[in-house]
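User:
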Amino acid sequence: MITRDNHRLGAEAAALLTEVSESRARIQATADEERRRIERDLHDGAQQRLVALRIKVELAAEQMDATDGSSAELIRELGAELDDALDEVRSLARGIYAAPLADFGLVEGLRSAARRAPLSVTVLAAGVSRRYPREIESAAYFCCLEAVQNVIKHATGATVAVIELSDNGVLRFQVRDDGAGFDERAVSAGVGFASMRDRLAAIGGELAIVSAPEKGTRVVGRIPLGASSAKPAPPRFTQ
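Assistant: Predicted structure:
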């Protein structure tokens, strides 16, 4: 009787774990789809309206140059403020769901983000040229970006960060820096690391953080790839 009860409880626990895992994956997929929708709305709505308004402001300034130079100058100052607002909207849209990630995949998405980083970020991805399902690309992309943001904010003395990707049936990413590092036993993981772990766990992945004083920090993630995970790279993809 006890053995049968144990088997039953084990089966129920396994079913609950599966249900929780599937629920987390659905929640993450819904969140990523909402990110994409917001990015599209910003690009097709607010961004395009600001571009059109900027053009009208410049045309108005040109028409006033001959008759009222001081007013034309004020209008051009307004145009400069519109440029700043447009840059902020573009930056916000990229942070929500980067167009290069959606259009070209993980490697190009990360390289595009690396070019905008305030410190030197290198992306190494030899042999990684295929597309993956959206949930895998999204998880790896945002985890790498979170790790780079942690370098920028918290890695004392860091001057470079390196993102390295590999694929041998498991998609592996590593973000390492040359900062001061820290004693893992003395520092508890923050919200950012918890978010990365949750995002990876939703698709069966895992995260590890390796650091020591004066040794920098490595954030390592692994995502298992099934037979259905491979997608051909689009024709425009360049490595």
